Amino acid sequence: MSKNKELEKGRRVVVKIGSTLLVDEELGTVHRKWLEALAEDISALSKRGQEVIIVSSGAIAIGRRHLGLPAGLLKLDENQAAAATGMVRLAHAYQEVLANHDMTVAQVLLTLDDSENRRRYINARNTLEALLRLGAVPLINENDTVATDEIRFGDNDRLAARVAAMISADTLVLLSDIDGLYTADPRRDAAAAIIPEITEITPDIEAMAGEALPGGDTKGGMITKLSAAKVCLANGCKMVITDGREPHPLKRLEDGAKATWFMPSATPKTARKRWISGSLSPMGAVVLDDGAVRALGSGKSLLPAGIVAVEGNFQRGDAVVVKTTDGRDLGRGLVAYSAEDARRIIGYKTSEIEVLLGYRGRDEMIHRDDLVLN
């Protein structure tokens, strides 16, 4: 195998670990030797100056056995109980193996909603930034005890991609039970060939993805990994899928193990614009006149005078769609005023805002630094 230097180039690396790698399916116990080897890999990255964030599955798989729950599908409340029990044991296992390398673990429980709600997003980002600055290894798990939708349909591939975007990571490693994306499902087609590098998720690429095999504790499959890749590519983050079942999976990746690398365009967006474009759910829309459309095209901010209509019921700081009078979607931005206040000042000059509202806010409805155009 020839060396691969892509992982070594990463300044901030997110490593997502699948449940099947970490947990013995029969016993519901952690694969301790495997986890100890992974800890050695993480320590090696840290010693050469790389920051590592772990997104780990496995809490439900561990917890269900300790609670004596039966095999097969569980009820929602049983899933949540299993997650609550398993999270404790999972975090303890990581703490023990990384402590052998003088590394501190900090558990952070997130849901996808935490990457869409602005205040929660900022709090989560600031916490993760502080932990990394202090030399800790954030251990992130989905908060399955409250995130009911995520238990039914969610997956940690997508969560890992959102986390990578949230903290401006440049590399996401998905450790899986398959070593990359193939032209067809290699478990069913012996002629399937691995695709070593992808720069765009085309319909042809999506057609190559297969579902997760039924049974066991894993969720998703290649389809969810491609969804994660879309988020990464849109946010300037490299992503790699590789087989993590053997010990030292990160070292093996660097040594040239089979993998599929998803490579973004050369110029990543700023961290703030990554969030706006890829993670926020729009709460409304603002409709622009032709002059404002031209102004945005030349790199200017959006002023109240250029808005002809406001749609929805958003608050200051929320994401909104920016569109033309004929309904064309121009992009997204973070508004400086609530919908109620916005309706009072649209069409007016910035010098009139204080008289109209009784206070002086920002001159712009959406500052150009808070705006992402399609």
Distance between the termini: 41 Å
Note the main sheet: 8 strands, mixed
User: Which percent bin holds the helix content?
Assistant: 25-40%
CATH-defined topology of the largest domain: Carbamate kinase
* SS element count, helices: 15
**Overall form:** elongated
* Unreliable parts: 212-219
Going by helix content, strand content and strand pairing, the class is alpha/beta
Instruction: Strand order, main sheet: write it out.
Output: 3-4-2-1-5-7-8-6
Count of domains:
2
Q: Indicate the proportion of strand residues.
A: 15-25%
Give the SSE string: HEHHEHHEHEHHEEHHEHEHEHEEEHHE
Account of the 3D structure:
The protein is 38% helix and 18% strand. With 374 residues, it is of the alpha/beta class. It folds into two domains: 6-274, 3-Layer(aba) Sandwich (Carbamate kinase); 282-373, PUA domain (Archaeosine Trna-guanine Transglycosylase, Chain: A, domain 4, Roll). The strands form two sheets. Strands 3-4-2-1-5-7-8-6 form an eight-stranded mixed β-sheet, with helices on both faces. A five-stranded mixed β-sheet has the order 10-9-11-12-13, sandwiched between helices. β3 (105-110), α6 and β4 form a beta-alpha-beta unit. The two termini are 41 Å apart.
